[in-house]
Amino acid sequence: MATQTTEIASMSDGQAAQIKRLLEDSSKYTFDEYLKTNPSIDSAQRIIEQAGQFKLRQAALLQEFGTMAEAMVVADWQKFYKDHFGLDVDFSKIGIPQRPKGNYRLLFIAKGMTMNITFTGCKKLFYTWQYVDDLDKAITRNARTASENYAVWVLDEVRPDKAYRGKSTKQADPDMEFGITLLERLLFEIKYFSETGKHLDTKGVTFCSGSRDSGSGVPGADWSADEFRVCWYDFNSSRPDYGIRSAVAL
Known about the structure:
three-stranded antiparallel beta sheet
């Protein structure tokens, strides 16, 4: 896996528009405040003559705030692993995949995390049910594993992808290329609950199509009857509210 300084890439069009409006508003505010100082002709002329430096300093300030925001995301995930699993992790130098278009959020997966460890973390927070006791043994194939730290963008919606609802794993992700793994889905459940006090998949089920058992069965996760459940589904299973949850990693 590629190693680089963490960078949260590719902001959405909506974010770009918001930042543009923020800069326009702050420029007007800054100019109005400058006028209140009753600037001299010489002061105004110095700004005009140093327009290039003025723009560079504005750009540097914007970059500084952006870097701070990225560092806060990393620090938040490091705290998450310390709080829930007692782990000291460093995500400052991992590769970040290109952000997909749409409503996605970034998950950080710590080296050494397993499905059993993560499901035990779920048990400490809310009621759970699992189809088998040993998830690590039952699930024999995963699109991604925590052999090293990594980051993955996942659909940030309560329900699975609208485009894939009603489709079986065989139809939507037969080759384990597009969907979330069970480990990622378990960590997402804990993260979402710790932030909101609520649960994902309160209607329908996420097929964790990035994971399979030895018979090509697909684990699924949902919140039903006041408990978080991990069930098993046939490769061909489909229901109107069930579907895969998109995931993008390096």
